[in-house]
């Protein structure tokens, strides 16, 4: 769905959306669901990593837009992939920090020796919780899924840095339809509602800060980082983060022009595209950074 398609739904234009966000298109699920896309992303990640489904100990699916409550998306992935040994559960609600938080959860299990092989998936059909009458939000979001396989190794473990600030949660909300008083909830509250400027200000301040914290916590200099893979929300946010860190914007790859903001799927989709293009080299240090509803934000350093 390109910006001109959006302009048929709400008062906006391709020019306005490109200028303010960098988004040109977004992919909207047709028959696919959060679960079916999670399965496909998981299948491709395992194939890409040369890992058999039977080797997987844990499947984590980060999503705020699953089509199922029970069984969880991760158990559906386990069944469909034949990952018979794996335990699966979903991480809901971490939203656009979701992939980074799921990655950190996986790393904690690997570091403690509880599991040796983890499949981490971010999958979203945000189109189902988007208010297509609200031009402040519907221009931003898209659907998609991505996945990564993490394995225990003897290499260095990097400490993540994460934060939550529930006091500022009102900046980005979506009320559940699954409550006793659902008939009294205004329909627009059951779609994502956002104070765009508040979220923008939060992101451009907190993301460079947390990247600075994670580099310091791990005694890594910015010059040692090959690329910064940020949650793909808005081109202006990514550019502002680069500027505040004093790092060249070329070290901040982007694909939001093609997919919009796919919440917990954005980082693994970008990681996969960079990997497929040969841009990631073994041993390179990479920063992942997520931010979003909660409010929540966090960053991790990893070695490819
Ligand atoms: N098309 C055209 N005009 C629009 C519009 C749209 N899609 N959305 C808002 N406007 C109008 C507003 O009504 C306002 O008009 P007014 O000055 O006559 O009142 C004007 O544009 C400016 O609105 P504002 O909300 O200040 O725009 P903005 O520059 O803050 O851009 C966002 C809006 C949503 C693009 C921007 O705030 C943003 O990207 N925020 C971060 C959101 C985000 O990334 N969230 C997810 C984080 S995980």
From TrEMBL:
GO cellular component entries: cytoplasm
Beta-ketoacyl-[acyl-carrier-protein] synthase III C-terminal domain span: 215-304
Beta-ketoacyl-[acyl-carrier-protein] synthase III N-terminal domain span: 94-163
GO terms of molecular function: 3-oxoacyl-[acyl-carrier-protein] synthase activity; beta-ketoacyl-acyl-carrier-protein synthase III activity
Record has Zinc as a keyword: no
EC number: 2.3.1.180
Keywords from the named record: Acyltransferase, Cytoplasm, Fatty acid biosynthesis, Fatty acid metabolism, Lipid biosynthesis, Lipid metabolism, Multifunctional enzyme, Transferase
One of the GO biological process terms: fatty acid biosynthetic process
Subunit (UniProt): Homodimer.
Family (UniProt): Belongs to the thiolase-like superfamily. FabH family.
Purpose: Catalyzes the condensation reaction of fatty acid synthesis by the addition to an acyl acceptor of two carbons from malonyl-ACP. Catalyzes the first condensation reaction which initiates fatty acid synthesis and may therefore play a role in governing the total rate of fatty acid production. Possesses both acetoacetyl-ACP synthase and acetyl transacylase activities. Its substrate specificity determines the biosynthesis of branched-chain and/or straight-chain of fatty acids.
Domain notes: The last Arg residue of the ACP-binding site is essential for the weak association between ACP/AcpP and FabH.
Protein name: Beta-ketoacyl-[acyl-carrier-protein] synthase III
Originating organism: [Clostridium] hylemonae DSM 15053
Lineage, top ranks: Bacteria, Bacillati, Bacillota, Clostridia, Lachnospirales
Gene name of the record: fabH
């Amino acid at each position: 769905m390109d910006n001109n398609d959006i302009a048929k739904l709400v008062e906006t234009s391709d020019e306005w959306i490109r200028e303010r966000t960098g988004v040109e298109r977004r992919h909207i699920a047709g028959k696919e669901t959060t679960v079916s896309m999670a399965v496909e992303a998981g299948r491709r990640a395992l194939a890409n990593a040369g890992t058999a489904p039977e080797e997987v100990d844990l499947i984590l699916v980060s999503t705020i837009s699953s089509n199922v409550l029970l069984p969880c998306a991760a158990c559906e992935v386990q069944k469909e992939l034949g990952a018979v040994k794996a335990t699966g559960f979903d991480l809901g609600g971490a939203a656009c920090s979701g992939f980074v938080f799921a990655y950190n959860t996986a790393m904690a299990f690997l570091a403690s020796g509880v599991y040796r092989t983890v499949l981490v998936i971010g999958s979203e059909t945000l189109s189902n919780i988007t208010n297509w009458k609200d031009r402040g939000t519907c221009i931003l979001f898209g659907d998609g899924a991505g996945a990564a396989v993490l394995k225990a190794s003897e290499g260095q473990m990097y400490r993540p840095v994460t934060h939550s600030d529930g006091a500022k949660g009102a900046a980005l909300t979506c009320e559940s339809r699954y409550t006793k008083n659902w008939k009294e909830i205004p329909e627009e509250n059951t779609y994502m509602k956002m104070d765009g400027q508040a979220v923008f200000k939060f992101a451009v301040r907190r993301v460079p800060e947390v990247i600075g914290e994670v580099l310091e916590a791990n005694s890594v200099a910015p010059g040692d980082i090959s690329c910064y893979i940020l949650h793909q929300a808005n081109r202006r946010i990514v550019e502002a983060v680069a500027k505040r860190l004093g790092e060249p914007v070329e070290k901040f790859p982007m694909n939001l022009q093609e997919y919009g903001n796919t919440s917990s799927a954005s980082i693994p989709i970008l990681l996969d595209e960079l990997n497929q293009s040969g841009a990631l080299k073994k041993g390179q240090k990479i920063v992942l950074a997520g931010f979003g509803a909660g409010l929540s934000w966090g960053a991790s350093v990893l070695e490819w």
